[in-house]
Amino acid sequence: MGKRKRLVADARKEANKSSYFAKLNDCPTSPRKMRIVADLIRGHEVFNALNTLKFSTKHASIKLEKLIKSAIANYEAKTGSKPDENTLFVKEIMVDSGFQLKRLRTAPQGRGYRIRKRSNHVTVILGTKN
Questions:
Q1: In which domain, by residue range, is 70 found?
Q2: 3-state DSSP call for residue 129?
Q3: For 76-96, how does the pLDDT look when each residue is reduced to its tens digit (9 = 90+)?
Protein backbone atom coordinates (compact mmCIF):
# COMPACT_ATOMS: atom_id res chain seq x y z
CA MET A 1 0.00 0.00 0.00
CA GLY A 2 1.30 3.43 -0.90
CA LYS A 3 1.92 6.16 1.63
CA ARG A 4 -1.00 8.32 0.52
CA LYS A 5 -3.43 5.39 0.59
CA ARG A 6 -2.25 4.44 4.06
CA LEU A 7 -2.82 7.98 5.35
CA VAL A 8 -6.35 8.04 3.93
CA ALA A 9 -7.08 4.57 5.35
CA ASP A 10 -5.81 5.59 8.80
CA ALA A 11 -7.95 8.73 8.74
CA ARG A 12 -11.01 6.65 7.80
CA LYS A 13 -10.32 4.20 10.65
CA GLU A 14 -10.05 7.05 13.15
CA ALA A 15 -13.35 8.50 11.94
CA ASN A 16 -15.03 5.09 12.28
CA LYS A 17 -13.89 4.80 15.90
CA SER A 18 -16.05 7.75 16.89
CA SER A 19 -19.09 6.86 14.76
CA TYR A 20 -21.67 4.19 15.52
CA PHE A 21 -23.23 2.50 12.53
CA ALA A 22 -24.74 -0.71 11.22
CA LYS A 23 -25.23 -2.02 7.69
CA LEU A 24 -27.78 -4.32 6.14
CA ASN A 25 -26.75 -5.65 2.74
CA ASP A 26 -28.92 -7.40 0.16
CA CYS A 27 -32.25 -6.96 1.90
CA PRO A 28 -34.92 -8.44 -0.42
CA THR A 29 -37.19 -5.40 -0.39
CA SER A 30 -37.38 -2.76 -3.07
CA PRO A 31 -35.46 0.43 -2.23
CA ARG A 32 -38.56 2.55 -2.76
CA LYS A 33 -40.51 0.69 -0.07
CA MET A 34 -37.56 0.80 2.34
CA ARG A 35 -37.08 4.57 1.82
CA ILE A 36 -40.69 5.22 2.86
CA VAL A 37 -39.99 3.63 6.25
CA ALA A 38 -36.52 5.20 6.53
CA ASP A 39 -37.99 8.67 6.08
CA LEU A 40 -40.22 8.07 9.12
CA ILE A 41 -37.27 7.78 11.52
CA ARG A 42 -34.59 10.02 10.02
CA GLY A 43 -33.43 12.54 12.65
CA HIS A 44 -35.46 11.02 15.50
CA GLU A 45 -34.13 9.83 18.84
CA VAL A 46 -33.28 6.13 18.85
CA PHE A 47 -35.90 4.93 21.32
CA ASN A 48 -38.57 7.06 19.66
CA ALA A 49 -37.58 5.56 16.29
CA LEU A 50 -37.80 2.03 17.70
CA ASN A 51 -41.33 2.71 18.95
CA THR A 52 -42.32 4.12 15.57
CA LEU A 53 -40.98 1.05 13.79
CA LYS A 54 -42.52 -1.37 16.25
CA PHE A 55 -46.05 -0.11 15.57
CA SER A 56 -45.61 0.43 11.83
CA THR A 57 -47.53 -1.92 9.55
CA LYS A 58 -44.89 -1.92 6.80
CA HIS A 59 -42.86 -5.10 6.33
CA ALA A 60 -39.62 -3.12 5.94
CA SER A 61 -39.99 -1.75 9.49
CA ILE A 62 -39.11 -5.18 10.94
CA LYS A 63 -35.73 -5.16 9.17
CA LEU A 64 -35.00 -1.53 10.13
CA GLU A 65 -35.90 -2.15 13.78
CA LYS A 66 -33.40 -5.00 13.92
CA LEU A 67 -30.77 -2.83 12.21
CA ILE A 68 -31.17 0.02 14.71
CA LYS A 69 -30.86 -2.43 17.61
CA SER A 70 -27.61 -3.62 16.04
CA ALA A 71 -26.34 -0.04 15.80
CA ILE A 72 -27.21 0.48 19.49
CA ALA A 73 -25.25 -2.67 20.35
CA ASN A 74 -22.29 -1.29 18.38
CA TYR A 75 -22.53 1.93 20.40
CA GLU A 76 -22.51 -0.06 23.65
CA ALA A 77 -19.52 -2.11 22.51
CA LYS A 78 -17.47 0.96 21.54
CA THR A 79 -18.29 3.15 24.54
CA GLY A 80 -18.86 0.50 27.20
CA SER A 81 -22.01 2.20 28.49
CA LYS A 82 -25.72 1.94 27.81
CA PRO A 83 -27.37 4.84 25.97
CA ASP A 84 -29.51 7.11 28.12
CA GLU A 85 -32.73 8.76 27.04
CA ASN A 86 -32.21 11.65 24.60
CA THR A 87 -28.51 10.90 23.97
CA LEU A 88 -28.58 8.91 20.72
CA PHE A 89 -30.38 9.88 17.54
CA VAL A 90 -30.51 8.65 13.95
CA LYS A 91 -27.96 10.93 12.32
CA GLU A 92 -28.07 9.41 8.82
CA ILE A 93 -29.95 6.60 7.18
CA MET A 94 -29.15 5.70 3.58
CA VAL A 95 -30.99 3.25 1.35
CA ASP A 96 -29.10 2.24 -1.78
CA SER A 97 -30.14 -0.09 -4.55
CA GLY A 98 -28.73 -3.61 -4.49
CA PHE A 99 -28.77 -6.36 -7.07
CA GLN A 100 -31.82 -7.24 -9.16
CA LEU A 101 -33.01 -10.72 -9.97
CA LYS A 102 -34.43 -10.65 -13.49
CA ARG A 103 -37.25 -13.07 -14.19
CA LEU A 104 -39.72 -13.59 -17.03
CA ARG A 105 -43.48 -13.92 -16.69
CA THR A 106 -45.33 -15.51 -19.54
CA ALA A 107 -47.67 -13.21 -21.44
CA PRO A 108 -50.25 -13.75 -24.18
CA GLN A 109 -49.32 -14.42 -27.80
CA GLY A 110 -45.87 -15.80 -27.09
CA ARG A 111 -44.50 -12.74 -25.34
CA GLY A 112 -42.78 -12.50 -21.97
CA TYR A 113 -42.90 -9.67 -19.46
CA ARG A 114 -39.86 -8.93 -17.38
CA ILE A 115 -40.08 -9.00 -13.59
CA ARG A 116 -37.35 -7.28 -11.61
CA LYS A 117 -37.03 -8.52 -8.03
CA ARG A 118 -35.15 -5.70 -6.36
CA SER A 119 -33.01 -5.60 -3.23
CA ASN A 120 -31.32 -2.83 -1.26
CA HIS A 121 -28.50 -1.91 1.11
CA VAL A 122 -29.30 0.10 4.23
CA THR A 123 -26.78 2.01 6.38
CA VAL A 124 -27.74 3.58 9.70
CA ILE A 125 -25.40 6.04 11.44
CA LEU A 126 -26.15 7.10 15.00
CA GLY A 127 -25.05 10.38 16.53
CA THR A 128 -24.83 11.61 20.11
CA LYS A 129 -26.23 14.83 21.47
CA ASN A 130 -23.74 16.82 23.49
A1: 19-128
A2: coil
A3: 999 999 998 888 999 999 999
